[in-house]
Amino acid sequence: MTAILEIRDLSVSLPPQADRPFAIKDITFEVNAGEIVCVVGESGSGKSVTSFTVMGLHDKRALTPVAGEILLQGQNVLTASDAQIRRLRGEKMAMIFQEPMTALNPVVSVGDQIGEILEIHTSLSASERKAKVIQAMTDVHLPDPEKMYRSYPHQLSGGQRQRIVIALALVLEPVLLIADEPTTALDVTTQAQILLLIKELQERRGMGVLFITHDFGVVADIADRVIVMQNGEIVEQGPVDQVLGAPQHPYTKMLIGAVPSMDPPRREEATGVPALSANHLDKLYGNKGMFGKGRVVHAVDDVNFVVRRGETLGIVGESGSGKSTVARCVMRLIDPTSGEVLVGDTDIATLREDRLRPHRRDIQIVFQDPYRSLNPRRTVGQSIVEGPVNFGLDPKEAMERAQRLMSIVGLAPEALERFPHQFSGGQRQRICIARALAMEPTVLIADEAVSALDVSVQAQVLDLLDDVKDKFDLAMLFITHDLRVAAQICDRIMVMRKGVVVESGPTAEVFANPQHEYTRALLAAAPGHRWFDKAPA
Amino acid sequence: MLFYIIKRILMTIPVMVVVALFVFLMLRLSPGDPAAVIAGDYATAEDVERIREQLGLSEPIVVQFTKWLGQLVQGDLGTSIFSNKPVAELIAQRIEPTMLLALTTILFSVFVAVPLGTLAAYRAGSWVDRVVMLFSVGGFSVPVFVLGYVLIYVLSLNLKLLPVQGYRSPFTEGIGPFLAHITLPTLTLSVIFIALIARMTRASVIEVLEEDYVRTARSKGQSEFKVLLRHALRNAAVPIITVIGIGIALLIGGVVVTESVFNIPGLGRLVLDAVLARDYPIIQGLILFFSFVYILLNLLIDLSYSLLDPRIRY
């Protein structure tokens, strides 16, 4: 096998004020023609810095390669001139990115964006370019490329956009494809399709793929070889079967162990009093235009459920399934179009704002993004006591309550004096949980509350959620797209698609014996299914 | 889209009626006898009576307003008290210099400011950026009349490069004299708009340069110049266009001073002369006219958004 990419003793330094001197230190590995090499690690491991440095797209103000070399078919990328690097990009190496929603220019048609790369690197005429673009779009299995050529990114779905980015990357048939978390932002069924596509194109063209991911499920599905990175260093590398089957380094073992199992434990049926129920909940978006045209989206269609105290109900679905809309409706962050939302015995679905306010404390929510759901200019303590004080609690008592809650969520009470940016993602999510609990709610909604966290942190936060649910006898509504996570924490789950509940039941039953074909498709699409869930079903 | 344009045009009608009402009341609600106010301190009783008749001030106020609105709808803005000419005609006579000065100023400002702002954004934090921002702060701070006289002193009196004052029409007197006379006022007026637009361009482009699609463009091997032109600037355009629109609106206010400094017979001078002479019909007519121009500008700006960004559809 011939090495396409050789990285030798590469070190990249961080600016002086950073928490460590090197983003990556002394890393050595190669990518051969016709193989997929996965670089796995958690946030801060240096895996993305590695990929961006190869492309010369790293942030040049903060990151400086200080030692080693990066050889692309023998040519050292680090010493190449800007013009040489620009020629290599697109012709020899290409990259696909994590966020298909933002990776494409919103004001240029997708056909022109693919055509641009031909314009830069070839002397083809306009009509030849167009023919080649259409061919590239056909290769990534986009429907009706002739028509889609003129579409703008916002008119396409996430999966379609990622296919456009792949078509763009591969139109000049580079020898090396760098994929930086290309499926992380996609739904699980779309992810499975994109992984399949990358594998298909890689095999057909015999190119080398450097695939960056945090997800061992994806690794199991796609990798030939695996490189595990931690804090900027490679801790383990080898063929996929060896690394997954007999991991040597404790960090690798920990990462693999933290992948939640798809095999839900048997759980006791909850017998508490109903804390939250929805009856015939409906939410319509959009309006009929002045001439009756307009578009109406049925975001939530006749959804019914009951959550008892001490019970966790999971709502599982892909983007656009309506799962988050349900959460917002039951919290009255948005107004449901029709139906009942019972908190205890009170229907809050149509309560006026002033009558609703006393009930607000009963339902609290933890959001997905711990980086944005805390006010950066207020101390953690201020954020936590704000709610109880609004409801008339004495500020001193509120602060005492906040201190108790901090130790419950596993943080030091002194942390109340600090600001959100001084905490890691997992710690911030703990703070958000403490903030929700400070209101002494009966219902806790977790809206993708662990989706933005690294897998090892995810496990800890899931444990914490389970603990506080028992401790405070909460009814928990757990919203997620991740079946593995749902399997770990939910007593019962509801599977939603396009606003409709297609299946619901005790978690173990739904996983063991899915009735609806959509549930079966979701289960089958979960990455790493072959490797991590050999035994069941 | 067409539906939206029609809706927007229809929406201007109530706005214009409110403006008209305000303009109408401005005269009637001023303290004392409006006719006496207009006639001034040294007017005779006959003068006051003549003005009262001319403005129809002896009739009930509602009748006055409906009559006046009726005239407005027919394009009759009233008659000047002093020159006895129709206000619409006076505006038409003076519109050319003002519009051409506004046009040259905006074109010049945009051509200088957008590249300058983009460059500052691309080299954010460098000395180029600092120089541009320094100029920008300076440009905001210097009053138009000070700058105008300084430029006259340096460029016209000392270096004798350009004529000091006056205006030549490009249509009747040729393009050469027009350019010679319009250059100084254009330069004077442009400084503040260059400052404004360059600042907004810089802020907007800096933000866009952080976007993922700029990285995608670089990953294609695109040159930095084209990354800026094709990907950054087009996406940064909406706030820039907005500020250009605000600029044009401010410009119309700014020409009053500039036209006085450079002795240009435009609408700005007409405003000044009318205010000094208390020629209320002209003032009213001009306020109505400028309001209409503002509303039209806003419509054009809103429509231009959808041309620049396919995601914006009305």
Automatic annotation (TrEMBL), chain A:
<dbReference type="GO" id="GO:0005886">
    <property type="term" value="C:plasma membrane"/>
</dbReference>
<feature type="domain" description="ABC transporter">
    <location>
        <begin position="276"/>
        <end position="523"/>
    </location>
</feature>
<keyword id="KW-0067">ATP-binding</keyword>
<dbReference type="InterPro" id="IPR003593">
    <property type="entry name" value="AAA+_ATPase"/>
</dbReference>
<keyword id="KW-0547">Nucleotide-binding</keyword>
<keyword id="KW-0813">Transport</keyword>
<dbReference type="GO" id="GO:0016887">
    <property type="term" value="F:ATP hydrolysis activity"/>
</dbReference>
<comment type="similarity">
    <text>Belongs to the ABC transporter superfamily.</text>
</comment>
<feature type="domain" description="ABC transporter">
    <location>
        <begin position="5"/>
        <end position="256"/>
    </location>
</feature>
<dbReference type="InterPro" id="IPR027417">
    <property type="entry name" value="P-loop_NTPase"/>
</dbReference>
<dbReference type="Pfam" id="PF00005">
    <property type="entry name" value="ABC_tran"/>
</dbReference>
<dbReference type="InterPro" id="IPR013563">
    <property type="entry name" value="Oligopep_ABC_C"/>
</dbReference>
<dbReference type="GO" id="GO:0005524">
    <property type="term" value="F:ATP binding"/>
</dbReference>
<keyword id="KW-0472">Membrane</keyword>
<dbReference type="InterPro" id="IPR003439">
    <property type="entry name" value="ABC_transporter-like_ATP-bd"/>
</dbReference>
<dbReference type="Pfam" id="PF08352">
    <property type="entry name" value="oligo_HPY"/>
</dbReference>
<keyword id="KW-1003">Cell membrane</keyword>
<dbReference type="GO" id="GO:0055085">
    <property type="term" value="P:transmembrane transport"/>
</dbReference>
<dbReference type="GO" id="GO:0015833">
    <property type="term" value="P:peptide transport"/>
</dbReference>
<dbReference type="InterPro" id="IPR050388">
    <property type="entry name" value="ABC_Ni/Peptide_Import"/>
</dbReference>
<dbReference type="InterPro" id="IPR017871">
    <property type="entry name" value="ABC_transporter-like_CS"/>
</dbReference>
<protein>
    <submittedName>
        <fullName>ABC transporter ATP-binding protein</fullName>
    </submittedName>
</protein>
UniProtKB/TrEMBL annotation, chain B:
<comment type="similarity">
    <text>Belongs to the binding-protein-dependent transport system permease family.</text>
</comment>
<dbReference type="Pfam" id="PF00528">
    <property type="entry name" value="BPD_transp_1"/>
</dbReference>
<dbReference type="GO" id="GO:0055085">
    <property type="term" value="P:transmembrane transport"/>
</dbReference>
<keyword id="KW-0812">Transmembrane</keyword>
<feature type="transmembrane region" description="Helical">
    <location>
        <begin position="282"/>
        <end position="308"/>
    </location>
</feature>
<keyword id="KW-0472">Membrane</keyword>
<feature type="transmembrane region" description="Helical">
    <location>
        <begin position="99"/>
        <end position="122"/>
    </location>
</feature>
<dbReference type="Pfam" id="PF19300">
    <property type="entry name" value="BPD_transp_1_N"/>
</dbReference>
<dbReference type="GO" id="GO:0005886">
    <property type="term" value="C:plasma membrane"/>
</dbReference>
<dbReference type="InterPro" id="IPR035906">
    <property type="entry name" value="MetI-like_sf"/>
</dbReference>
<feature type="transmembrane region" description="Helical">
    <location>
        <begin position="175"/>
        <end position="198"/>
    </location>
</feature>
<feature type="transmembrane region" description="Helical">
    <location>
        <begin position="236"/>
        <end position="262"/>
    </location>
</feature>
<keyword id="KW-1003">Cell membrane</keyword>
<dbReference type="InterPro" id="IPR000515">
    <property type="entry name" value="MetI-like"/>
</dbReference>
<dbReference type="InterPro" id="IPR045621">
    <property type="entry name" value="BPD_transp_1_N"/>
</dbReference>
<feature type="domain" description="ABC transmembrane type-1">
    <location>
        <begin position="95"/>
        <end position="305"/>
    </location>
</feature>
<keyword id="KW-1133">Transmembrane helix</keyword>
<feature type="transmembrane region" description="Helical">
    <location>
        <begin position="9"/>
        <end position="27"/>
    </location>
</feature>
<keyword id="KW-0813">Transport</keyword>
<feature type="transmembrane region" description="Helical">
    <location>
        <begin position="134"/>
        <end position="155"/>
    </location>
</feature>
<protein>
    <submittedName>
        <fullName>ABC transporter permease</fullName>
    </submittedName>
</protein>
